[in-house]
Design a protein that fits this description.
The protein is α+β, with helices and mostly antiparallel strands. The protein is about 35% helix and about 15% strand. It has two helices and two strands. It is flat, with a radius of gyration of 15 Å. The N and C termini lie far apart (about 30 Å).
């Protein structure tokens, strides 16, 4: 998990090699943590990595047109 502070806003990102790890139990744990920490989430998204994400991670550069 990584966290960044963007102008006073905190963003958290979770990555996994097994998309099944990010199931409903994980989302329940995240929302429970927010509630117990007094954090009001403005946005919550779940997405799978795209082929482009994997390419950038592997090569460190973007595709050229």
């Amino acid at each position: 998990m990584s966290a960044t502070d963007t102008g006073g806003r905190h963003e958290y990102s979770v990555a996994t090699d097994d998309p099944d790890d990010l199931g409903s139990e994980f989302l329940a744990a995240v929302t429970a943590w927010c509630a117990s920490s007094g954090v009001l989430a403005e946005d919550l998204r779940v997405r799978r990595r795209t082929l482009e994400d994997v390419f950038l991670e592997t090569t460190g550069r973007e595709l050229r047109d």
